[in-house]
Write a structure and sequence with these properties.
heterodimer, A: about 170 residues, mainly alpha, Arp2/3 complex 21 kDa subunit ARPC3, 6 helices, B: about 270 residues, alpha+beta, Thrombin, subunit H, 2 domains, six-stranded antiparallel beta barrel, 4 helices, 13 strands, elongated
């Protein structure tokens, strides 16, 4: 198992955009998460193990670029990388609708995970309010932005990730 | 739906053309009365043929003169447009520079006003996640910036330095869930801890239910934490809730500094 350089570049480019350009898209403090979209796109095609590795890589980048606890995103992203990788093995046709659902689901799982972990470490932190106030809107926003991003770069991504279904190709089977 | 749209590229091109035409028409509505460059060109080209059917060589020469006159006007028009665009951009750049100079001047006043040594810095990046509230600034260890130094703008405290790098540093904002600052109500002098909760507001904790804290009160740094100088403005009380369970009331505070749009700040070196 080895990482492919373009995929890593895709992940790092998402990270750079996340701290610079994405801030312009902020709505009431909520921003789409491009790194999570990248982790999803790479993991759903790579299987569980690659999903974990790509998730961990995206998570550590996120941890470094965030003012929070180190390891929070590393673990959370590894989790969702695994889930995406596992789900990818059971998906026959990765359409835009499936991508929306997939990105929304992993974003919500990652958000809920972060909220629960933070409520554990930060005194008085309201996890339920964070899930409703941050995780849920961010998941919707990330899913919308993610589907658009994958659609816009579908041709380039289709070469890098042959059976992502972004260039009208369909996966033959599980 | 996106796939459906991508399959109908003809429809997409038609929509783009119609949209472009609508934009073009809109621009003409905004500048009524004047002919467009295309109209001038078409008329200039058609004019010799129209005129040539019933005019003499004299009028034919006039057509050429007219053509070159219009050609010259068009070139002049292009040059003026370019000049106008350049001046417009320069005006924007100078206005932005003047605004920035004003903000930096106000930041330097902060040091004079409170008697601190300050290091102005620009915000170069924001927190990658929506879960934490921090900014990356362009001043770091090489500029004398160290962990836990307070960061402020001329409107109030912004937060504290969380970590420093060679020439940059990360500042945790007051609204970050991990932020905690010793604070007091300016009017009632009730003291508490101002903590962030990840939203645009902070909470002033440990204020007893009988304490006379009201919306509109100014919240200042108490200086008890030894980090943020006493008396620096932190925020304004926007809401209180005495019906909350427990011994303490809930006090919500909006930071006086605009943390969502912060572009420059000062690190208080002391």
């Amino acid at each position: 198992m080895k990482f492919r350089v373009p995929l890593i570049f895709f992940l790092l480019a998402s990270a750079v955009l996340q701290v610079t350009v994405v801030d312009w898209l902020s709505l009431w403090g909520v921003r789409p998460n491009l790194i999570l979209v990248a982790v999803y796109a790479l993991s759903i095609t790579g299987g569980e193990m690659r999903g974990i590795m790509y998730g961990a890589l995206g998570g550590i980048v996120m941890d470094c670029l965030s003012g929070g606890m180190m390891g929070l995103f590393l673990s959370g992203y590894a989790l969702v990388g695994y889930l995406a990788g596992r789900a990818g093995r059971r998906v026959f046709n990765i359409s835009e609708v499936a991508n929306f659902g997939g990105i929304f689901a992993i974003s919500l799982v990652q958000g809920a995970y972060s909220a629960v972990v933070m409520s554990t470490f930060i005194n008085g932190y309201d996890a339920w309010a964070a899930i409703l106030g941050v995780a849920l809107p961010q998941s919707v926003y990330t899913a919308c932005a993610g589907v658009l991003m994958l659609w816009l770069f579908r041709k380039r991504l289709a070469d890098m990730v042959p059976w992502l279904g972004l260039a009208g190709r369909r996966r033959a089977g599980a | 739906m996106l796939r459906h749209v991508s399959n109908n590229r003809g429809l997409l091109v038609l929509a783009a053309v119609v949209l472009a035409c609508f934009l073009w028409m809109t621009s003409q509505v905004r500048e009524p009365g004047g002919a467009s460059l295309l109209e001038r060109g078409v008329n200039a080209l058609a004019y010799p043929f129209v005129k040539g059917t019933d005019s003499t060589s004299k009028s034919f020469r006039g057509v050429w003169e007219g053509y070159f006159y219009l050609f010259g006007l068009s070139a002049e028009n292009d040059r003026l447009r370019e000049e106008n665009g350049r001046l417009y951009m320069e005006n924007i750049r100078l206005r932005e520079a003047a605004r920035k100079a004003g903000r930096l001047d106000a930041l330097s006043q902060l040091g004079t006003e409170y008697g601190f040594r300050v290091r102005p810095a620009s915000v170069v990046g924001r927190d990658a996640s929506s879960w934490f509230k921090s900014v990356l600034i362009d001043a770091g260890e090489s500029d004398g910036v160290a962990r836990n130094m307070p960061a402020a703008t001329y409107t109030g405290v912004v937060g504290k330095v969380r970590e420093t790098f060679g020439s940059s540093a990360r500042v945790t904002l007051l609204t970050d869930p991990g932020s905690a600052v010793s604070a007091l109500d300016e009017r009632s002098r009730d003291a508490g801890i101002l903590v962030g909760d990840g939203s645009s507001l902070c909470r002033l904790q440990y204020i007893e239910k009988h304490a006379d804290v009201r919306p509109g009160d100014l919240v200042l740094a108490s200086g008890l934490d030894g980090l943020i100088p006493k008396g620096m403005p932190l925020g304004e009380v926007v809401k209180t809730n005495r019906a909350a369970s427990g011994y303490f009331q809930e006090v919500y505070v909006r930071p006086t500094a605009d943390l969502e749009h912060i572009e420059e700040l000062s690190i208080i070196l002391r």
